[in-house]
Design a protein that fits this description.
24% of the residues lie in helices and 15% in strands. With 263 residues, it is of the alpha/beta class. The protein has two domains: 59 residues, Alpha-Beta Plaits (2-Layer Sandwich), CATH 3.30.70; 141 residues, Rossmann fold (3-Layer(aba) Sandwich), CATH 3.40.50.12280. The longest helix has 13 residues.
Length: 263
């Protein structure tokens, strides 16, 4: 016991200060909010960006647009575009309250960030949010980056947000994966077991749109096909900082509003 206490004292405070301090440094290869410039797309005959996108997240008609809910953030479109009309930035703030807000381009490059849950729901839940996580056919990438938030460096519990083992102890469900038909019943039973009022959160491209498995007969194209989703967190997988940002906005710990243009 003494050795454990001495080791803890030597390690010091290991939990990051964010959101009170600056966000932790992101890796060099991190891709965040993309900036779109469709001014050079008129009359573009190559459409190389469309051919490069594996999930049909890009659209050139009537103007250049990008669906972050389908985007894998692979960067293939950025490399394929001869005009440099697509550039991924470093901004990790990507979560929205409405599915349609994830489509960039038509109304500019501003992203309407997620807003806090309703006053009545917040009054009932207070500062506590208990979530049941369901991997509905995921590859374990989104699940792994979600689990990172429980480590000492992130300490999700300090915000009153915790993952629980039983849906009957939960205030909502956090879904990862494209929702395969084999997981349809399990997800439905989990949702039905959570007492009202409750929230639903979709994390990752698969949970939002089906991702690479969209329109496959084995999947339901994401959680939105079954649940009234309150928070959409895009990515493949989303960085833990992106997931944390979305959760904090949902509970009202971060202000909602518009995200400035990236790039």
């Amino acid at each position: 016991m003494i050795k454990a206490m001495m080791a803890r004292l030597q390690q010091g405070h290991r939990t990051m200060r964010y959101p009170k301090g600056s966000p932790p440094p992101l890796p060099e290869r991190f891709r965040g909010l993309p900036a779109l410039d469709g001014s050079n797309c008129d009359g573009c005959a190559e459409s190389a960006c469309l051919a490069a996108c594996p999930t049909e997240a890009l659209c050139l008609s009537p103007a250049l647009s990008l669906d972050l809910g389908r985007c894998l953030f692979c960067g293939d479109c950025e490399g394929a575009c001869p005009e440099g009309s697509i550039a991924f930035g470093k901004d990790h703030r990507l979560s929205t309250s409405r599915r349609g807000d994830l489509v960039l381009g038509a109304g500019g490059n501003d992203l309407e960030l997620a807003h806090a849950m309703g006053k009545e729901l917040k009054r009932l839940l207070g500062r506590s949010l208990k979530l049941r996580q369901v991997s509905a056919g995921g590859c374990n990438a989104c699940e792994a980056d979600t689990n990172v938030l429980n480590t000492v460096g992130w300490d999700l519990g300090r915000f009153g947000i915790q993952f629980v083992a039983s849906p009957r102890h939960a205030d909502g469900v956090l879904v990862t994966g494209p929702v395969t038909k084999n997981m349809e019943l399990a997800l439905r039973k989990t949702w039905d077991a959570i007492p009202e009022p409750k929230v639903a959160i979709a994390v990752g491209a698969c949970a939002i749109s089906g991702g690479l498995y969209r329109d496959r007969p084995e999947t339901l194209d994401g959680a939105g096909s079954m649940l009234p989703v309150d928070l959409w967190i895009p990515g493949c997988p989303p960085h833990p900082l992106t997931i944390l940002d979305g959760l904090l906005r949902l509970v009202g710990s971060l202000r909602s509003g518009q995200l400035r243009r990236s790039g």
